[in-house]
Design goal:
alpha/beta, 3-stranded parallel sheet, 2 helices, about 10% helix
């Protein structure tokens, strides 16, 4: 009896280890809510409105892309999400958090978000988002933030931003850009291949 109980406990522990080591994509498959890694930020997808909600306190996890990369827990919904609402209390949007969301039309970002990671809205050649307002308090528009979002025509950059990263808006559909006086660094190719860009106002310094 004791031996059988020990075998059962061992089997349960092995199963727990196997599940915890499974790739994020497999764990998230089919889910409509959960957590961003081991952070205090939770997520929920509303299929009726095609809206992804993030809430909680602190930063989300950093992600990447590729077969063996730590993809977002909501990655399997990336082709369905049309709206993202970030709750007050979230302070950072991690690397590649919303990578490849080509159906995305609107993003609501509160002023509690002070930083965003590499390629956070990257890789959406057929993306339909046309405008975005970045939060007051954001310091840095990171590398490849809006890489190749060809229909993105308008971005409101707050006067808290001091740096625009490399390739931040490369290939976007921007027509007019106003860079606030707070910006002191613009990295290479930040606005490269923005073929529709007709007006850009640099800081008056």
């Amino acid at each position: 009896m004791r031996k059988k109980r020990l075998q059962t406990i061992t089997a349960i522990l092995l199963l727990a280890i196997m599940v915890s080591s499974m790739p994020t994509k497999l764990l998230a498959k089919g889910a409509t809510s959960g957590w961003s890694g081991y952070t205090d930020v939770s997520w929920r997808y509303d299929s009726a409105t095609h809206t992804l909600y993030l809430s909680g306190k602190g930063p989300t996890r950093d992600y990447s892309y590729g077969d063996d990369a730590p993809a977002p827990e909501w990655d399997h919904l990336s082709g369905k999400v049309e709206r993202i609402v970030i709750g007050k209390g979230v302070t950072r949007l991690g690397d590649c958090a919303f990578y490849g969301m080509d159906k995305l039309k609107e993003v609501v970002i509160p002023n509690t978000v002070k930083s965003m990671g590499y390629g956070v809205f990257d890789e959406a050649w057929d993306g339909v988002m046309t405008k975005i307002t970045l939060p007051q308090g954001l310091k840095n528009i990171p590398q490849s933030c809006f890489f190749d979002r060809r229909k993105l025509e308008k971005v409101n950059i707050p006067n808290s931003v001091t740096k625009i990263g490399q390739d931040a808006f490369i290939g976007c559909g921007l027509k007019k850009v106003i860079i606030p006086n707070s910006v002191n660094t613009i990295r290479a190719a930040a606005f490269c291949e923005c073929k529709g860009l007709v007006s850009i106002r640099f800081p008056q310094k």
